[in-house]
Amino acid sequence: MENLLKKLDLTSLRLFVAVCQEQNIARAAEREFIASSAVSRRIAEIEAMIGLPVIQRQSRGITVTPVGETVLRYAQAIIGNIEQMSAELSRFSSGAKGRVRLVANLSSIVQFLPEDVAAFGRVFPEVSIELEEENSADVLRIVGEHGADFGICNPVAGSEAFQQVPYREDRLVVLVPGGHRLADVPRVAFEALLADSFVGLRSESALTQLLAQQAASAGRQLDVKIRVGSLDALCRMVHAGLGIAVVPEQVGLLYVNALDVRLLSLSDAWAVRHLIMIFKSRDQLSASAAALVGFLGSKP
After folding, report:
1. Which end of the chain is more exposed for a tag (fewer CB within 10 A), N or C?
2. Domain boundaries, the chain
3. 248: buried, middle or exposed (CB in 10 Å: 19+, 13-18, 0-12)?
4. What does the pLDDT look like over 55-92, one tens digit per residue?
């Protein structure tokens, strides 16, 4: 008996269950698309391993012995567990179950990802998502080092080395205090703002680098009085009159009615940015990660 685990196989158990359910070897063989003699041989092998009969063969069918009832009970449990395992594994392979590691920049997280990830969770409730915030340059590094399944960032130097899928459009606007000289101007060019003091994000952010580049193109340098680590803090600094700031439009809209600030559209073409999803290779994405990329890529 101690070697039963090594000797019994799932096919024999499945055929035994079929015989018990049909109460007839011939009908079980027909159901399982196998010869009756092969079924009989499998049953005989089970009996030889156990050393006791599991069925009584009769002219018009079979009856299950008490030993056979015990074998049947455990065989059905084993087969049921295998079927459940197969169903669960199929959800992994289809992307319906699994874990996705996602690294994204601040702009995508504060504007779009919370709602989009929540919507994905309603469609794929068994997929867990680990989301980490990093600046765009670090998004590239982490994905390149296989520290995340894929990343979301603005196109920056080095992003061309990855496969890319468009995610969202990111429009930049100017946030000014309510009493600013341009508070009632709906649209302005970035160059017209370069005499002002700015509140900025940390120097490694893609937005900070973009603004510095555009100021340099105009032959100027940004006068950044204060640097902060979040867009929330940035908006509150503007509200306090400590400077003006360039922020993603969706962020500015969150604060324009809550704080004493105004939003001005930027007339510069570069003020419309694009957020992209990056990964090493689509073939290397897990089914769950591929499902999330496809879901996010379908957003307007």
Report:
1. C
2. 4-93, 98-168+274-297, 169-273
3. buried
4. 898 878 888 899 889 988 988 888 888 877 776 666 66
Check whether domain 4-93 has CATH 1.10.1740.10, yes or no: no
Tell me the Cα Rg of the chain: 33
Closest residue by Cα to residue 273 from 199, 194, 197, 205: 205
In the block, residue with structure tokens 């957003």:
299
Architecture of domain 98-168+274-297: 3-Layer(aba) Sandwich (3.40)
Of 55, 60, 58, 65, the closest CA to residue 15 belongs to 55
Q: Residue 43 has which token pair?
A: 């049953």
The Cα–Cα gap between 275 and 258 comes to 27
Q: What are phi and psi of 142, to 5 degrees?
A: -65, -45
Q: Is 298 exposed, middle or buried (0-12, 13-18, 19+ CB in 10 A)?
A: exposed
